[in-house]
Design brief:
Strand content of chain A: over 45%
Mean pLDDT of chain A: 91
Radius of gyration of chain B: 13 Å
Largest sheet of chain A: 6 strands, mixed
Number of helices of chain B: 0
Oligomer: heterodimer
Shape of chain A: globular
Helix content of chain B: under 10%
Shape of chain B: globular
Structural class of chain B: mainly beta
Helix content of chain A: under 10%
Chain lengths: 111, 114
């Protein structure tokens, strides 16, 4: 079983629409959760951390469900510039470090 | 601040050659790590360090060595390059404070082993 699983897409979404991605993780000891964005041939960039109570940053909302071990990302009023690959990322912690990445969900915003 | 700087950006090696990928950060981050990204595989952890003098293996450490003599630098050494090590390599760093801070990534080194 893969540690972090995401639907690879691509998700083709019209500009202005709302889109949601989910991600599941297998290690119940996971302590920290993030969404990263990666543009083609670029490095991953932190989009937002994900907190247990859920959190929002502008048009982006992240949710964490520890009981079901899934994380979600909602993008409202999508922009052409939101086209990218979105990576679900988990940190187990507990003395170890290093991130476990999902393979990413490819999002294409269409004009 | 330059952030996380990786050199070189591109490299072609012959099978059996050795080389060092350089990574430096100027943010005084204690935690640093190396990842490789292959098509269809996502990013995978090679080695990580939680401070100067402390390193540990990640998911795919074979064929790679690391050391951490200073807080700023975390070089990755390929001992004897193999075609299977053709990949994009990312170095990343973060401050302590688990759960609060994600990693900041360098711009990557694209390595081809022929």
């Amino acid at each position: 079983r893969k540690e972090v699983e995401q639907d690879p897409g691509p998700f083709n979404v019209p500009e202005g629409a709302t889109v949601a991605f989910n991600c599941t993780y297998s290690n119940s000891a996971s302590q920290s959760f993030f969404w990263y964005r990666q543009d083609c041939r670029k490095e991953p960039k932190l989009l937002m951390s994900v907190y247990s109570s859920g959190n929002e940053d502008g048009r982006f909302t992240a949710q964490l469900n520890r009981a079901s071990q899934y994380i979600s990302l909602l993008i409202r009023d999508s922009k052409l510039s939101d086209s990218a690959t979105y990576l679900c990322v988990v940190l187990v912690g507990g003395g170890a470090d290093g991130l476990t990445f999902g393979k990413g969900t490819h999002l294409i915003i269409q004009p | 601040n330059a952030g996380v700087t990786q050199t070189p950006k591109f490299q072609v090696l012959k099978t059996g050659q050795s080389m060092t990928l350089q990574c430096a950060q100027d943010m005084n981050h204690e935690y640093m790590s190396w990842y490789r990204q292959d098509p269809g595989m996502g990013l995978r952890l090679i080695h990580y360090s939680v401070g100067a003098g402390i390193t540990d293996q990640g998911e795919v450490p074979n064929g790679y060595n690391v050391s951490r003599s200073t807080t700023e630098d975390f070089p990755l050494r390929l001992l004897s390059a193999a075609p299977s090590q053709t990949s994009v390599y990312f170095c990343a760093s973060r401050p302590p404070g688990q759960g609060l801070y994600g990693y900041t990534f360098g711009s990557g080194t694209r390595l081809t082993v022929v």
